[in-house]
Amino acid sequence: MLVSWKWLTRYVDLPADREELETRLSLSGLNHEGTETSNENPALAADDVCIDLEVTSNRGDCLGHIGVAREIAVLYDTELRVPSPTLEESKTDVASLLKVENEFTEACPRYTARVIRGVKVGPSPAWMQAALTSVGIGVVNNVVDATNYVLMECGQPLHAFDYAKIADQKIVVRPAREKEIITAIDHRQYELDPSMCVIADAKSASAVAGVMGGADSEVTDSTADVVIEAAIFTPLSVRRAARTLKLHSPSSFRFERRVDPVGVDWASRRVCQLIVESAGGTVAKGIIDTAPEIEPRPPIVLRRSQLERILGITIEPGEVDRILTALGCQSDAKITAGSGSYRAPSWRHDLTREADLIEEVARIHGYDKIPEDSPIPVAPSSKRTFDSATEKIRGVLTAAGLSEAMTPSVVTKKLDSSLSPWTERPALSTQTAMLKGAKRLRRTLLPSLIEARANNWASASIEADLFEIAHLYLPGETEDELPDELYAVSLVCGGDFFAAKGIIESLCQRLGARQAVSVSPVDSPGFVTGQLVQLSLGDSPLGYLGVVAPKTLKQWKLSGNVVVAELSIAALLADAELVPQQRIVSMFPSVERDLNFVMSESVRWNDLENVVRSAVGDQLKSVTYRETYRDPKKDGKDRKRVLLSMQLQSDETTLSGDDADALVQSVIGACKKKLDAELLG
Amino acid sequence: MSLQNFLSALDALQSEAIATLDAASDPEAFEAARVKYVGQKKGALKDIQKQMGGVAADDRKSAGMRLNEVKQAIEKAVAEAQSRLSGGGDSGVDPTFDPTLPGVRPTIGHIHPITQTITHLTEIMGRMGFEAAEGPEVEDPHHNFVALNIPEDHPARDPLDNFYLATAATGTEKQNIEGTRLLRSQTSTVQIRVMANRKPPVRVISLGRVYRPDDPDATHFPMFHQMEGLLVDTHVTMANLKTVLRVFATNYLGGDVEIRFRPSFFPFTEPSVEVDFLWDGNWIEFGGAGMVDPNVFRAVGYDPEEVSGFAFGLGVERLCMRRHGIKDIRDLYSGDMRFLSQF
């Protein structure tokens, strides 16, 4: 909100040091955003300065110069000068000129109106024009300018209607009709709906309540009589109407943050006085007010002990009392007795509880008075299992050469549709796009990583091997459920299927997985047929691993081989032993044997491995795949040679050459019998 | 054999042997030469020694002395050649070995700077007793607003200020109405869930992604990470809050950093402040903080007359960018290896 330095001087004596004032305002709640002089802003008078202050949403009372002046008066312990409007009223009663019916109290708890007759619309006085210009308000005429001046003076929005245009001299506050059309003073047409509140006459809507006036009833050069509206419109109603119509205004901004109920009448009298001074005319006697009674504020008890309990410092009771009284609180009982009782002023909607008063005392007293060396009791803390595991995961993956990416959680339809291995339910969607076109909460990280790889290739010919650890959002059964948020670790890399599989096997091993990684072929669009597998640890699903189909790669403009995998971190953790446990190693030497088998192409490595293991039992320490060799000329079609190494070791004695040979013979026999695999001589 | 002939043979042998040994450029050539000349069974020296019998008796003394001289010269040459080939001296350098060639580097990946920042923050706060907690990113209005004392008419609930999820109705028809689910706008929701399931004392940090409809630019992105801290106990004060933030700032930013509180407004804390750190001569806003609002305590079943507490929230991206000199927040989410490989 823009504030004119010169304008402020009408209400409070300002200190000589402007920068100090700006800092003190920042440190007490009105954040200083910037300052302009006539050098930066030619619209400013040479002797004025325009200050931009950020007003928080709970301080609607500071959306006017008097409100800011009040803060300054409290900070500098000086006097605040608030004008006392005086009106000379004619004998004609306002009730004889105008009727007001309020049919929508939910949106408009209070509506007031005054009538001024015999005005001469013309330019505003120079001082008013200068004031409005200094804070960026356009100059219109002496009637409209007066309403804007009072708005910026005290924060109460006002509106002037041309009395002659009000049909039947009746104002009706009512819900808009279905698809009712109004032409606003910006001369555009807006379609309304019954949730919106309008100010209408006997025939049609004249204004959108709290948001913008209508063109039909606006004040023109030929206007002779005006109606002055000063009202309270509820924040929710104003906000929704302004948002729906995309019509935001200084008025709607202030109604959304609540206005001072006592200020309504003050503003009405103030604007009438200013209009009469510059445009002539007479004010009809009295005011039409649909809800003239204002509830008194309830007392708030403030305990000295609570001040210390919350802030951690002691503030002298006299200072507490001075601060609250200066802010406008009425003291029913001073705090010196241990607890005081205060009533908040009408303009402070945010002061309702003891905690609010504590905040007021603290911010005026100064947060710099609060020390930063207060003892913090020692408390033990421990690292989460999840964090230990993800630290290991990152260690393994970076050692394998992959770098960690971080990509947006909400993706475009293109990415969402390309892959979805975990669920067939449609992705959750946001109402508003997070990034251009991106509304889908992702069900897999893989398309994001493939896109990142493609972008690396396109921009710098980099073959990026990437991983990410993030949530998948798997929709629940019904629309009201929160989704399953599954943490996944996903990777994209070049190389071949088995290089990626090796990374995953190493990862599981490093996490202390108790069960071996097993695979079962699955089929899915986007992957090479037969080269997409579901991964499991024992019987529990772990994730997916597959080679991206050339057709899909072409869409991404990627060449070469791309392998992707996605694992559930919960599944990894379920089988993990994050604290490695020692296993006793044998004190006897091991014996190595290499075996080269020829067998049918359809025999899988895990079948061969299992047969070897069961043939030897405990004395087999490891069986390692070495190589596959295919020579149709020597071995025939659909045959292959597989080379493996066995490490044989006993826990009880040294194995002799003959012992090892006997074990090897049992392996050879079992392979022959079960797999029809022949040992090559 | 005449003495003259014998001496000539010795001279020839010495010349040949020394020349051959000097020319040996590898252990194999050396060994062949050594065996040829000084071998115990078939060496040339051994052969010529046998011819002494053919020399006249009167000349044998002279012949013997000369033989010994030649033998010693050849053996010396053998020793020198052996020493040279075993690594001593400049002449032993392999000219094909260029130590200035680059080493063979292993391919090691990089951990994301946001992850590094979160790990660092978690470690600092862990030393002050704060444990990490997490919660859902898709939230209901109760946890995202109501329990945080954000009333229905508060601007923070606006559909333009949150990512509400579309339903069958809103997806096809109206936009911009409040819904039953949204992407959380803050990690305070985790604190609500923690407090609802635990008795005081509570000392946690919640970390994770949050979402706000900001247009992306160098300093804004609609998705970012927050770290929120929460401490609830019987005697927690704003001085404790300032102290915790001071310890954090000193550990993360260095001993010369200053802290400043500026009054602000958040519905879930009262008093509420913005937290600024003075860094490189400029006050930088890093987040918000305050004493937990009594209404929040009541919403989770705590008695605000029994316990008090503070909460603070810091933007992880802001801290990360400051510390690493990152100029554009969008780089963090690009997956661009040219960016990622710098950290």
TrEMBL record, chain A:
<comment type="subunit">
    <text>Tetramer of two alpha and two beta subunits.</text>
</comment>
<dbReference type="InterPro" id="IPR005146">
    <property type="entry name" value="B3/B4_tRNA-bd"/>
</dbReference>
<dbReference type="InterPro" id="IPR004532">
    <property type="entry name" value="Phe-tRNA-ligase_IIc_bsu_bact"/>
</dbReference>
<feature type="binding site">
    <location>
        <position position="350"/>
    </location>
    <ligand>
        <name>Mg(2+)</name>
    </ligand>
</feature>
<keyword id="KW-0436">Ligase</keyword>
<dbReference type="InterPro" id="IPR045864">
    <property type="entry name" value="aa-tRNA-synth_II/BPL/LPL"/>
</dbReference>
<dbReference type="InterPro" id="IPR005147">
    <property type="entry name" value="tRNA_synthase_B5-dom"/>
</dbReference>
<feature type="binding site">
    <location>
        <position position="359"/>
    </location>
    <ligand>
        <name>Mg(2+)</name>
    </ligand>
</feature>
<dbReference type="GO" id="GO:0006432">
    <property type="term" value="P:phenylalanyl-tRNA aminoacylation"/>
</dbReference>
<keyword id="KW-0963">Cytoplasm</keyword>
<dbReference type="GO" id="GO:0000287">
    <property type="term" value="F:magnesium ion binding"/>
</dbReference>
<dbReference type="InterPro" id="IPR045060">
    <property type="entry name" value="Phe-tRNA-ligase_IIc_bsu"/>
</dbReference>
<dbReference type="GO" id="GO:0004826">
    <property type="term" value="F:phenylalanine-tRNA ligase activity"/>
</dbReference>
<dbReference type="Pfam" id="PF03484">
    <property type="entry name" value="B5"/>
</dbReference>
<dbReference type="GO" id="GO:0009328">
    <property type="term" value="C:phenylalanine-tRNA ligase complex"/>
</dbReference>
<dbReference type="GO" id="GO:0003723">
    <property type="term" value="F:RNA binding"/>
</dbReference>
<dbReference type="InterPro" id="IPR041616">
    <property type="entry name" value="PheRS_beta_core"/>
</dbReference>
<protein>
    <recommendedName>
        <fullName>Phenylalanine--tRNA ligase beta subunit</fullName>
        <ecNumber>6.1.1.20</ecNumber>
    </recommendedName>
</protein>
<keyword id="KW-0067">ATP-binding</keyword>
<keyword id="KW-0030">Aminoacyl-tRNA synthetase</keyword>
<dbReference type="Pfam" id="PF17759">
    <property type="entry name" value="tRNA_synthFbeta"/>
</dbReference>
<feature type="domain" description="FDX-ACB">
    <location>
        <begin position="586"/>
        <end position="680"/>
    </location>
</feature>
From TrEMBL, chain B:
<dbReference type="InterPro" id="IPR022911">
    <property type="entry name" value="Phe_tRNA_ligase_alpha1_bac"/>
</dbReference>
<protein>
    <recommendedName>
        <fullName>Phenylalanine--tRNA ligase alpha subunit</fullName>
        <ecNumber>6.1.1.20</ecNumber>
    </recommendedName>
</protein>
<dbReference type="Pfam" id="PF01409">
    <property type="entry name" value="tRNA-synt_2d"/>
</dbReference>
<dbReference type="Pfam" id="PF02912">
    <property type="entry name" value="Phe_tRNA-synt_N"/>
</dbReference>
<keyword id="KW-0436">Ligase</keyword>
<keyword id="KW-0547">Nucleotide-binding</keyword>
<dbReference type="GO" id="GO:0006432">
    <property type="term" value="P:phenylalanyl-tRNA aminoacylation"/>
</dbReference>
<dbReference type="InterPro" id="IPR002319">
    <property type="entry name" value="Phenylalanyl-tRNA_Synthase"/>
</dbReference>
<dbReference type="GO" id="GO:0004826">
    <property type="term" value="F:phenylalanine-tRNA ligase activity"/>
</dbReference>
<dbReference type="InterPro" id="IPR010978">
    <property type="entry name" value="tRNA-bd_arm"/>
</dbReference>
<dbReference type="GO" id="GO:0000049">
    <property type="term" value="F:tRNA binding"/>
</dbReference>
<keyword id="KW-0648">Protein biosynthesis</keyword>
<dbReference type="InterPro" id="IPR045864">
    <property type="entry name" value="aa-tRNA-synth_II/BPL/LPL"/>
</dbReference>
<keyword id="KW-0067">ATP-binding</keyword>
<dbReference type="InterPro" id="IPR004188">
    <property type="entry name" value="Phe-tRNA_ligase_II_N"/>
</dbReference>
<dbReference type="GO" id="GO:0005524">
    <property type="term" value="F:ATP binding"/>
</dbReference>
<keyword id="KW-0460">Magnesium</keyword>
<keyword id="KW-0479">Metal-binding</keyword>
<dbReference type="GO" id="GO:0000287">
    <property type="term" value="F:magnesium ion binding"/>
</dbReference>
<feature type="domain" description="Aminoacyl-transfer RNA synthetases class-II family profile">
    <location>
        <begin position="127"/>
        <end position="319"/>
    </location>
</feature>
<dbReference type="GO" id="GO:0005737">
    <property type="term" value="C:cytoplasm"/>
</dbReference>
<keyword id="KW-0030">Aminoacyl-tRNA synthetase</keyword>
